[in-house]
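Q: What would this chain look like folded?
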Amino acid sequence: MVTKVVTSSPDGCFILQGRAPLGNERIYGPCSVQQISFPSPASVSLPSCMAEAMNRLLCHLERGVLLWVAPDGVFIKRFCQGRVYWSGPMAQHIDQPNKLEREKTFKLLDIPTFLNALQNNLQGKGQMPSYQIELCFGEEYPDPIVPKTRKLIMAQVVPLFAVELMRRLNLGQSQEKLLNLSSNSAGKMTLEG
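A: My prediction, written as structure tokens:
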């Protein structure tokens, strides 16, 4: 099952099972963040063994992860007990798991680096930069043995400023307009999972 959610909350979003942790904003982040809940296994037709495995996993994802876009990057902080792994432009490993540690902030995408790589690409000095981020809940990822299509819960994070930059690039707009756009739409992202 794929659910697509577009969020433009300036404070980011929680991806979780249940409700966002309330309390000290210094610890848990702003309380005005958008909450995106995992779909219930009962809401989709899954084989019983998969539904049971998802139910066991979901109870460990109650406090979820907080995801936000700042002027210099896309960030995440894991609060849940369940392990969360990721891949993306700043991942340390391409072919082995990248684990998000609990209560620690990780930068998933560096916007200045992305914009520099994009500018280099426009000048014929490099490849088109990557901006998509994948999160895997409860299972190691990337995993050279088990493909992502076999993982129980995956989320794809796509910063909309990058999508819009690429769209405008394909339409042939000037670099000045492209760089101006990146600063205007830095707080929006699409989540698919």
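The mean pLDDT is 84.
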